[in-house]
Amino acid sequence: MKLNRIPTIAITVIALALALPIAALADVTGTPTLAANTALSFDTGTTSTSGGDILWSGTSMTPQGSAGAYNLGNLGLATYSTLPLSTFSALPSSFFTKSAIAIGSLPVGEVLAVKTNGGNYTKVAVTAVSGTSISLEFDTFGVNSGPTITQILNNYGLVPVGFTNSGIAQGSLFIIKGSGLADPAAQAVLWKFANGPLPTTSNGASVKVTVGSTTTVPAFYYSMASQLALVMPSNTPLGTAQVTVTYNNQTSTPFSIQVVQSAMGFDAYFGTGSGLGVATNNASGALYNYTSSIPPGTTVVLWGSGLGADPTRDTTYSTSNINQILGLSHIYIGGLDATIAYQGPSGYPGLNQVNVTIPQGVAPGCNVSLVGVSSSGVPTNFLSLPIGNGVCSDSVFGTTGTQLQNGSGQTTVNTGFVEMFQETGPATSGSGTQTSNLAIGIFESVTGASYGSSSGSVSIGGCVVVQSVSTSGSLPTVTYLDAGSLSVTGPSGTVAMPEPTMGLYEAQLASGFISPGGTYTFKGTGGTGAASVGPFSTSVTFPNPPLVWSNTANFATVTRGSGATFQWTGGTPGTYVIMAGSSTGTTTGAFANYTCIAPVSAGSFTVPSYVLSALPAGTGNSTLENTSSYQSFTATGLTSGFALGGVAITVNSTYN
Question: pTM, whole model, 2 decimals?
């Protein structure tokens, strides 16, 4: 085994500006009732006829000046009272908009986040609505020039707080995100081990971790004002810890985490914690990717952090006393249990490596699922690997590794997607179910890195999970493309597909339009302007006979500690089925969804318990979908285009 990998540290690149000293302010709170045409300043708590941070017109609330607002939803007054500053200060700037919020979206219990004209954060709850008046409760958090912690994450897995696999392990490499954490002029430069052990202070910053009556001091890989990277001391006690950052003689409010024995996070190719994983050849050290996939039977090295305590290397690079750290009991690749040859230190503080052999029986693909599981059933983050020879291929999706690799290297990737879709799910009002028949078109431009990372994608035979929290990161930037006028033609005639929003097309179809199946042709006339798509025509065959989910009743309640078996009949021979589910934590706001895929001929598929355990306890849904094979099409202005037909059945689920 090789012990020469230099650690990849997750660095959020942010433009650094000179911080100007500002006076600390106390919180400003209030419970005003606003009549029509009243402005309110959350910085001072005063009302006026104009200005302020928001203007209440009697029918809507509109941010004023440089202020912005973000609607968190109907969380209720009890939840509102418990929300800390970190919930609001971690929200990306793009979330705060100047859009008016209509009275219909402001029922009692609705909670808003406001970034004020003074640059402060305010939490706002609606307590009453009467005619054209609205009553609010608000708390504007005081400005403090000291450090603020918004997130603490495993450097590689990046699993946010609120999930069973979000703990920070003894001896692991972790990051602290926030503001004012270190010298604002400092650059994120990795420590050079030629200069000695990792330091416990960096650019004026220091960190303490307190569990009970014991305090430990982590050592730094790097520091900058918005992010720190450190190694959790191996002698930190297990349990609930309070983490503080001290900079410029000021100490942050303690941030709570769980210090655990083991919580492995694997390195992702694009540094996102999901999508394509980092794997190197055990003999040559070569890095695998979409155009250089991994043949079954190959032993590869996976990189990451969190297997467990390693006191020899808390601060110092060392290849002595290399012993395994058995943090993982299993590694599943494409759903198959792979042989672990070694798991333990790499030599660098906090950096672990796992040597594993790709199972001979794994189905090839570009996004073959990868996940490790501890002896207690706790999973790592979910990644994927390209399995095959040379350029990987997922023929069922019509994609190759060349497309994925080339796309990931571009600044933007323009994609087009059209689909015939029949969905059966819970009725929007009352009990029972309802069925919708839709024709859908989506034309958009996304960043190359997000395209290449394939987060949430999975090849046949495996499962992946994507975990998030409303405050865990920024939304991807999407630009929609104009494809002109769209229509779909089938045995029953032609239906126009309106474009309510540029780049998004949808038509409600009569129930007989897609039954009993057949071939359907999508046509686009082509759009105008710079962000447009040229004319195209493509056809799909709708699944026949339609899929029937035969055990929907079993998914009303899903026990996360047990596997969940989908059973079905029907579906077009030679196609595949997608099993999916999602849940939102009852109290944490944590959200996760899983996706599994299997051939329709299998007739059943069991979602493993380690997949379900990555979802939070709460409410959500479960879905079974059968789609045709992806058909590719081309058009001027598109990097790639795909068309398919599908049937989906969704039920509400409670995840225990």
Answer: 0.75
